[in-house]
RNA sequence: GGUGGGUUGGCCGAGAGGCGAGGCAACGGACUGCAAAUCCGUGUACACGGGUUCAAAUCCCGUACCCACCUCCA
């Protein structure tokens, strides 16, 4: 069984064949750190996090690079509006992004390069392009450098477009361009309107990088001239990825073997950036559901499917995920918990200690079929729930191990300490304290029940419930859990 | 205008020629003092119109509606 991935460039599902056996190099376009991350931003990160975990689980040594764009027009515009330096805005938003990603258990990449730290690499690449006749400094003295689209016959190959069908670029004064479709590799510093801190020295005078060049330069630096997979949101297909590929290949680099693009999360039928609304920012969403539930909501849909976001659907997903957690909790209550189920030491994938169900593996190998994979998790949970009635058995242990193994691949293991709300030492002490108090009440209730004094038994249960704690009677005795938030 | 994608049951969301993915909700049953949880069961869903085929949600043709990208949006 081999991994198959949908390649945007060829518009078909293809076998994944790495350039180097046993290794996978992945580059994902991260965010432009210009505002707080919302649900849509985070989807891309989760989707590619699942890709990474699956590759690792299948035994690949994964080098995973996800960049941040920390200088661009919007950052400059917004920072000016907010009356603070652009680098402060970018840094603040970068930290917000880190926090948001941590809250949904997205692993930190192998490395996270930023554009501003890689100007020399970009200058070098631009110089190469000029030398090869694929780029030229603007003739209007603006200090801009453009990629010469007409000089690269393959231009448009990624998105299946002809140059003549495209609308001309508007991000620079067209007077300096040979063709209106040429795009900026380097942007000359505009003294009158841009801060001095937003300019770096170059052979063409002070300026800053064009958008696309950073990814070409950084992918080349950290993954090599050829690498396996390049990912990002669908909107980046054109122009960003088309331009990246054109630049890199025109410079003589083979670049990415596979292109993967995640679809949108929309609200009211439109992309989130259009519908705005603070309620979709990650901290707001996390007031309603836990991070793990938000992640489950994202993972339960295929990465190439549009998802129409709604809080109702989010609540449903959260309810569905608790069913999985309930199974794990009940198994733990009879002695089959996470500690008894050793899997990989790093929790970053790698082969599990128990073979995952064939159907799960097949689903994941089929272009990361997470919806089908989640269905297998539910099937296993249902079987496990049946087994649970028989007490601790080898079959039950296997089911628990498989569920943990599958959840880990999806980044959804509730016992993973990476979850910020998984509880540190203080939480555990608090839980122990509450346990003592609740156990006392449960003993009283047990006495009442033994005496068939149902009124008193229910009164005690209601009293506990008033504190936000649910009591369930199980074959092995009453179990208390914190109620839903 | 060019390019890419979508329309599935009360809801969410898979699938891509034949056997009803899965979840949420609902209803019935089992279990329970009652609940809860769990298990079992219950649905003639594939935008519309044609066609191909023994067989179409799935392939072909056409129509409608929706969305995205076309130079700094995940």
From TrEMBL:
Q: What is its main location?
A: cytoplasm
Any one GO molecular function term: cysteine-tRNA ligase activity
What does the entry list as the binding residues for ATP?
274
Name the cofactor(s) required for activity, per the record: Zn(2+)
Q: What class of enzyme is it?
A: ligase
Q: Which GO terms describe its biological process?
A: cysteinyl-tRNA aminoacylation
Short motif 'HIGH' region, span = 31-41
Q: Name one Pfam family in it.
A: tRNA-synt_1e
- Record carries keyword Cytoplasm: yes
Q: Where is this motif: 'KMSKS' region?
A: 271-275
Source taxon at top rank: Bacteria
Task: Detail which positions bind Zn(2+).
Answer: 29, 215, 240, 244
Concerning Gene3D superfamilies, the annotation shows:
Cysteine-tRNA ligase, C-terminal anti-codon recognition domain (1.20.120.1910), HUPs (3.40.50.620)
For this record, an example GO cellular component is: cytosol
The cellular location(s) given in this protein's UniProt record come to: Cytoplasm
The reaction(s) this protein catalyses: tRNA(Cys) + L-cysteine + ATP = L-cysteinyl-tRNA(Cys) + AMP + diphosphate
Region (Disordered) residue spans: 160-180
| Residue span(s) of domain Cysteinyl-tRNA synthetase class Ia DALR | 359-421
SUBUNIT field: Monomer.
The entry assigns this protein to a family as follows: Belongs to the class-I aminoacyl-tRNA synthetase family.
What PANTHER family has UniProt attached to this entry? CYSTEINE--TRNA LIGASE, CYSTEINYL-TRNA SYNTHETASE
Protein name stated in the entry: Cysteine--tRNA ligase
List the gene name: cysS
